[in-house]
Amino acid sequence: MNFEQLLYAEVLAQHRSMQKAADVLHISKSGLSTAIAQLESELGVEIFDKSSSGTVLTDDGRQLLASISDILRYKNGLEKAAAKIANPSQHQKFTIHYMNTMLRPFINSFVENYDKKYRPIQLNISCHEFETIVSQVRDQAIEAGFIAINNSKNDAIKHLNFTPICDSKLVLLCGPENDLAHLERPITLEDLKNQHFSIFNDQFHDDIFERLQFQCGPLDLVLRVDDAWAMEQAILRLNTVCFGRTLQSQLASHTDFSKLVAVDIGHLIDENFKLGWLTNPNTMLSPTMTLILEDMSAQIKRDAQSIGIPH
């Protein structure tokens, strides 16, 4: 028995056809059949039932397939671990978490510079809430997090490094048909009472929504989401309003928030946020990882400047 025979069995179980499996494996049908027969003979178990309608796992074969898959998975894991030990610089993995919607500048920067600067690093990037990012950075589970923060949350990042990249203002976003889009005066608490809200999964937004309810009573919350497209649909089709940070909303991926109207609410709540990198002083970043953060920061600053946001 060898790894090659186990791989053949795995592929044959997927395709249920000697010919299709042989084509995938780039071997002859007769060669595949011989290898499977040798494996069955050595194990003393008939793994496949071969008929004119196809080749399918027997009951015994289904029981063995999980072990076969585990062995192949462990083999791959061993090979990857050995490759990293032998050439650590060639197998770097970098994990970034970011707060809602603002994926575009990170991906644009990484894709643009990958061949010239980063190859063969692996980037893992995903969207998370503020508390999760802080916890993951503090525990050194990730290398960096991109967060939005105002003065109310400074204690939450104590003993971590925060590098501000640009400023962002919190506004209320609404559709062009909403009455708020046509106000010729500052918005009031009475105006808010007549609105239906959608909220991103964001602790800051929850806190602001709660503070506004302290002042004007219960507000109608229709939807909570973490997807920019879903939020856009709620605003345009359900006529809801939502909180949004200017830079994040304008750099959202797959969604054109430029169709929405931004209503100033700075006279009602603390509207000023800083966007930047959160890192752990005990986490050592490689030169390539540091370069990735620098390039992404430069991209964000360019994007902020192009839409008139200070940095």
From TrEMBL:
The keyword Transcription applies. Residues 1-58 form the HTH lysR-type domain. Keywords: DNA-binding, Transcription, Transcription regulation. Gene3D superfamilies: 3.40.190.290, Winged helix-like DNA-binding domain superfamily/Winged helix DNA-binding domain (1.10.10.10). One of its GO terms (molecular function) is transcription cis-regulatory region binding. Signal peptide: none annotated. Belongs to the LysR transcriptional regulatory family. This is LysR family transcriptional regulator. It comes from Aerococcus agrisoli.
